[in-house]
Amino acid sequence: MHFFCYYYYNYYNNNNNNYYYYYYYYYYYYFYYYYYYYYYYYYYYYYYYYYYSYYYYYYYYYYYYYYYYYYYYSYYYYYYYYYYYYYYYYYYYYYYYYYYYYYYYYYHYYYYYYYYYYYYSNCYYYYYYYYYYYYYYYYYYYYYHYYYYYYSNYYYYYYYYYYYCYY
Question: Does the keyword Transmembrane helix apply (predicted)?
């Protein structure tokens, strides 16, 4: 500013001092105006910078919040899913073990079939005798995270006598 003043003073000091003052105040006002202009826009962008940074922090916080609860519930979801699969696996394990045991003894050891055929005159006598031995598990159920199995042994006798004749 002193430079401009000195320059215009040396240039216009010969005849027209009003002209010199005019330019002096004009340039002074000009730089003053741009100074506040940039200051205003600096303050403006500074304000919006903190404004959007506040909202950025706000959404970031809620994003972290929901992410945390998502992870929390997903953890419990997989936790219960794991235990569900665990009991489900053991349920079918004992289920198939029971049927394997049942059919194994049924078809290999404890099944007796007797067939008698008699012929007398024109008559045919068929005699069937079945003998079953069961290990019958009497249904298992889930109660307080434990499996209880009840079984009972019983014998089943089946007697069949068939008679027909040709006349």
Answer: yes
What's the CA gap between 157 and 129, in Å, rounded?
A: 8
CB distance 143 to 149 below 8 Å:
no
Confidence (pLDDT) at 149? 42
| Selection from 98, 106, 103 nearest residue 130 by Cα | 106
Would you call 137 helix, strand, or coil by DSSP?
strand
75-129: pLDDT as tens digits = 888 888 888 888 888 888 888 777 777 666 655 554 455 555 555 555 655 555 5
HEC secondary structure over 36-92: HHHHHHHHHHHHHHHHHHHHHHHHHHHHHHHHHHHHHHHHHHHHHHHHHHHHHHHHH
pTM attached to this predicted model: 0.26
Report the distance separating Cα 86 and Cα 80, nearest Å.
Answer: 10
Task: List strands edge to edge, sheet with 111-120.
Answer: 111-120, 123-137, 151-165
Question: Comparing C-alpha atoms, which of 104, 147, 112 is closest to residue 130?
Answer: 112
